[in-house]
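The aim of this short unit is practical: by the end, you should be able to scan a pair of folded records and say something sensible about each. We start with the first protein, listed as its amino acid sequence and then its structure tokens.
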Amino acid sequence: MIRVHVPATSANCCIGFDSLGMALDWWATFQFEPSDELIITGCPKEYANEDNLVVQSFLKTCQHLKKEMPTFHLHIDSDIPFSRGLGSSSTCVVAGILACDAWFQAHLNKMEILEIATDIEGHPDNVAPCIFGKAVCSFMEEGKPRMMIIPCADYKCLAMIPDYPIVTNEARKVLPSTLEYKDAVSQVGHALCFLQALQVGNEMILAKSCVDHLHEPYRKKLIPDYDSIHEQCQEMDLAMWISGSGSTMLAISLDPTKLNQLQKDVETKLSIQCRQMPIASKGAWVDYE
């Protein structure tokens, strides 16, 4: 049996639109074992077929390796919610690639894995931290992903997960087509300070640097509870952002008492599900049984 463990992720990280992602210590597990036919368990019935993203990613990797697609029993054990901005699709993509690599003992390196995952996902901002862990900044150059791992101080994360999904394609429709020059300059400055504060543990600067001009001013309208949570986070000097395209919002802090207070308020006043976790120190990995 091949077992693949893949972390949830938070993309964009406020000021890193389509370029900065963070791995979360919240894991999905995917088990693969030989079978005479394709069997998929542990997911909704409508996904238990050959169009399953895990299966399609396995197939894509077989094509990359020039191998025949085997049949297997795939069991998915994940409570990472769909369409909430926590990288559920990226966990499936990375799981399929790593399982195929393990199945054929191909020994793909992590950059090869990232290239296949980016080709499937269309961008590296979620799959990169999924593969490498920690925080990862990335960009595309001539169709190839380029990335750097960002070491993180001992921040803890609070995911605040509303009970409604947001589809990424729909969230992209609300974005502007142009940006004023002064806003672009502001974005760069805030992003550079955010990265440094994330590494050295300067929580005050981290919170102050969470000022985005590219997506949050537009996507927050899709999340009715955003403004009240954002206002409380500002009062508490907490870094907070829309995770991916939403609807999840993520706050991070070095002080667990702050996150505990925010969680209590969000759960009692807004009835929003919350979950605390550290930043994942490593990316996806494989074990065998």
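Turning to the second protein, read its sequence before its tokens, just as you did above.
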Amino acid sequence: MDANRIKTLIEDGLPGARADVQGDDGVHFEALVVCEAFAGKLPLARHRMVYATLGERMGGEIHALALKTLTPDEHVRQQERG
């Protein structure tokens, strides 16, 4: 599994999402996922939404995925803070 494939799976599974996925060992990855559908949801629910896009690959082809999940507004505010 590579970072680009994970990015595609997340973006295809969460309409309107933008994902930035990093990782170079093939099993451990980090992702920033920005999606309007996260609005009003707690972090655990957001993470579950992302994991659902990856299905059975989690725990198999993808051993670990560290997630940061933000709404577009949260992402803008975070960038403004630097």
